[in-house]
Amino acid sequence: MRTPVTLRQLEFLVALDDSRHFGRAAEAIHVTQSTLSAGLKELETTLGATLAERDRRHVAMTPLGAALAVRARSILRDVEGLVEQAATESDPLAGMLRLGAASTIGPYVFPALVGGLGARFPRLRLRLQEGLSDDLRAGLRDGGLDAAIVALPYDMGDAETRALIDDGYLLACPKDHPLANRDEIDGGDLTDRPLLLLERGHCLQRHALSAFGDEALRQDAAYEATSLPTLAAMVAARAGVTLLPEIAVRAGVAEGHDLALIPIRGAHPRRIALAWRRGAARSAAFEALASACAEILRAGQRP
């Protein structure tokens, strides 16, 4: 009788496929390299096939190994979902929840959410991850994330979304800039002023350029930033002007820089929303999570 394949062996296979390195794979799942290697060898013996080709420096998955790793991920997700469904029958917001957020949102909402959600759902354990919106959408689709905080409008495929807050913009400019002493500005004040913005791939870059609908704004092609703190620093260095999201300003992204922050009239805000897989077993829990997140973040918007 053939020895059965174990879930632990499938976890070893997925870890190796993810890292293509025995040491990093072992570290990722908190086992020794020898344990991982032995477990994979046992799996290969059980299946009667080679799943990975090894030498001293490299690991290459065989076609069968790569294909089985895809199936193993699905099996492990199903098992995890089974365990979570049982554990959350009496308390839907208990246990581990993998929550992602866009990198222009996460640093400015995670601190409030961790404290606020912890007080409301003491049995909830959050595993937080930041990334680009494309990566978050893929994480939801592939099961790497349970839910994600994203900025709309953005095509989230068939994911469910619930609005949390609207996030407007402030113009950030040096204090000696011609617009610095204005009480507020509108889109017309920006049409001939190229904006310092994030690099392409960030939703905020697209949202900022479309903040006034048909009144197109222009990005300064000479520079693309990788983060909002970098943008604030470049404006302070008189490299140009930018639009900063209100949640980032409230969280202190402009602190330490000699900047003027000017309200903008008529700009379309981006909508911060919680997204999750349509038909997820914990959909009712995500609805409750969205309500709690909205309450926490709206409280942070009040003066």
Automatic annotation (TrEMBL):
<dbReference type="InterPro" id="IPR036390">
    <property type="entry name" value="WH_DNA-bd_sf"/>
</dbReference>
<comment type="similarity">
    <text>Belongs to the LysR transcriptional regulatory family.</text>
</comment>
<keyword id="KW-0805">Transcription regulation</keyword>
<dbReference type="GO" id="GO:0003677">
    <property type="term" value="F:DNA binding"/>
</dbReference>
<dbReference type="Pfam" id="PF03466">
    <property type="entry name" value="LysR_substrate"/>
</dbReference>
<keyword id="KW-0238">DNA-binding</keyword>
<dbReference type="GO" id="GO:0003700">
    <property type="term" value="F:DNA-binding transcription factor activity"/>
</dbReference>
<dbReference type="InterPro" id="IPR005119">
    <property type="entry name" value="LysR_subst-bd"/>
</dbReference>
<feature type="domain" description="HTH lysR-type">
    <location>
        <begin position="5"/>
        <end position="62"/>
    </location>
</feature>
<keyword id="KW-0010">Activator</keyword>
<protein>
    <submittedName>
        <fullName>LysR family transcriptional regulator, hydrogen peroxide-inducible genes activator</fullName>
    </submittedName>
</protein>
<keyword id="KW-0804">Transcription</keyword>
<dbReference type="Pfam" id="PF00126">
    <property type="entry name" value="HTH_1"/>
</dbReference>
<dbReference type="InterPro" id="IPR036388">
    <property type="entry name" value="WH-like_DNA-bd_sf"/>
</dbReference>
<dbReference type="InterPro" id="IPR000847">
    <property type="entry name" value="LysR_HTH_N"/>
</dbReference>
<dbReference type="GO" id="GO:0032993">
    <property type="term" value="C:protein-DNA complex"/>
</dbReference>
